[in-house]
Amino acid sequence: MKDAFGLPQSLLVLGGTSEIALATVRRLVARRTRTVWLAGRPSPALEGAAEQLRDAGAEVRTVAFDALDPESHEEALGKVFAEGDIDLVLLAFGVLGDQAHDEREPLNAVRVAQTNYTGAVCAGLVAARSLQAQGHGSLVVLSSVAGERARRANFIYGSSKAGLDAFAQGLGDALHGTGVHVMVVRPGFVRSRMTEGMEEAPLATTPGAVAAAIELGLRRRSETVWVPGALRVVMSALRHLPRTVFRRLPV
């Protein structure tokens, strides 16, 4: 069960090598969290992440999980929930893709959409049902400000995050009053392996800053978290710009 501050004692990460997810887990382990499941494709990176968290004092187990194999999601998550209640599920998997290349290779664009949206829809519904069955818990979904408005530079990725964001908001409404809390996290440009070599956008942030915002959001039982918070105002303005003006912006 969660502690008096709303922080989880047990959690499951879907996308167990995500830098944002691991920064969040380390932060929570330093507070109260003791049981951690890392779900992802079996790899040295996944095992390395698990070992680092064990060194930090957590009891860590891994489970094979593939976002692109939705038919396996019920079995994979079922193994975790069969071992005991999970206070927090952090849905953190996703791919950025290569916009210029993916426009020329539609199947690559489909893979981005299947990972970021359809895979997340399946995993999110399975997790939500399990949380609802136990009567409590939080589902934190890593979205992106890229989903707020399609940009020429990354509309394939942005459209997949737009779908994910809308799904997570609707799921939160569907679960309202059940004891299950859904929180959507919308970071801006995050300095990480995923964005290495890319030109940094204004108001760039770090995995650690996103982790801190997630912790605060859990304490407050927030439904939407922007990182940094100033992006709420920026994106509200951008969302309402006429398209003729928006097209001329260097975004």
Defining traits:
alpha/beta; 7-stranded parallel sheet; single chain; 251 residues; 7 strands; 47% helix; oxidoreductase; Sc_DH/Rdtase_CS
Please provide a written account of the structure.
With 251 residues, this protein is α/β, with parallel strands linked by helices. Helix 1 links the parallel strand 1 and strand 2. The radius of gyration is 18 Å and the shape is globular.
Tell me briefly what this model is.
By secondary structure, this protein is an alpha/beta fold. It contains nine helices and seven strands, in the order βαβαβαβααβαβαβαα. Helix 1 crosses helix 7.
Q: Cα-atom Rg, whole angstroms?
A: 18 Å
Structural class from helices and strands? alpha/beta
H/E element sequence: EHEHEHEHHEHEHEHH
Quick check: average pLDDT? 92
Number of helices: 9
Overall shape: globular
Largest sheet: 7 strands, parallel
Side-by-side strand order of the widest sheet: 3-2-1-4-5-6-7
Blueprint (SSEs and pairs):
Layout: E1 10-14, H1 19-31, E2 35-40, H2 44-55, E3 59-64, H3 73-81, E4 88-91, H4 99-104, H5 106-134, E5 137-142, H6 155-175, E6 180-187, H7 207-220, E7 224-227, H8 231-239, H9 243-246
Parallel strand pairs: 1-2, 1-4, 2-3, 4-5, 5-6, 6-7
Helix pairs in contact: 1-7, 3-5, 5-6
